[in-house]
Amino acid sequence: MSNLPFGFGFGSDDANSGDPGPGNSGQNPFDMNSIGAALQQLGAFLQSAGSSGSTGPVNWEMVRDVARQQLASPEAGGDRVVADAEARAVTDALHLADVWLDEATVLPATAGAPLAWSRSQWLEQTLPMWQRYVEPIAQHMQQVVGGAMPNAADVAGLDSEALNAALPEQFRAMFPGGIPAEMMSMMQPMLGMAQQLGAAAFSMQLGNALAALAREVVSAGDIGIPLLPAATCAMLPRNVEQLGEGIGVDSSDVRLYLALRESAHQRLFSHVPW
């Protein structure tokens, strides 16, 4: 699945080398397979948006589905359940971190039990807070876009000349002689789809972004803002191990350092209200 919603990318260098081949005449730079896949993806997203009944600026069912598909894909390494040994190692590291921090700060430890998450668990547990952060931004974006375009219901009965007058100045400047009636007949139904397409595109981008984060974050407080309703220490053992391998440091040392940081973050989130 492409990370660009409904995007039409160029083919590979071989496909664009000018040599004729299936779906490539040597003069057409677009990969017909990519275009077909993008159109199928667009249809699936519109169907999902319609079946979910979502009318807001973000389709959260789509966000979840896109992110989970990305996390489960073999190309991304898939996801796996946290082993018992990994969970014990996380618990021990966080308990030791609390002992050290009790001597270094007046902020008390969090009350919740330490947690060890898979990538999918991180997604599911943090999604409610992402909704609180993202929804106002997406709502404002939708209002800005909606304010730049006439409402589909308002223009349904307009002729070509009146519809030209109803379009934003930026659109009219692109066509000094007026937008042709044939193009107008195609634009009218598109105006009704604009909000739905915008929500679908934004939802897909957000789902891809959360999947990318789930493959990288090592703890609940890793990105520096609270992602849980109540401060709870949580770590992702697979990502911790991946980080240790990447920097050439033993995973137990990396785990302990990250446990200290995670515990400190959660103490701060819990006792210094946002």
Biggest sheet character: 2 strands, parallel
**SSE pattern:** HHHEHHHHHEHH
Q: How much of the polypeptide forms β-strand, as a percent range?
A: under 5%
Fourth-tier CATH superfamily name of the largest domain: Zincin-like metallopeptidase, N-terminal domain
Describe this structure in words.
- There is one protein chain.
- This protein folds into two domains: 1-53, no CATH class; 54-149 and 195-271, Lysin (Up-down Bundle).
- The protein is 61% helix and 1% strand.
- The chain contains ten helices and two strands; from the N terminus they run αααβαααααβαα.
- The chain has helices spanning 32-52, 60-72, 84-102, 119-148, 152-155, 160-166, 169-174, 181-214, 237-247, 251-271; strands at residues 115-116, 234-235.
- It has a two-stranded parallel ribbon with strand order 1-2.
- The longest helix is centred in the last third of the chain and has 34 residues, at 181-214.
- Mean pLDDT is 78; it is low at 4-12 and 20-27.
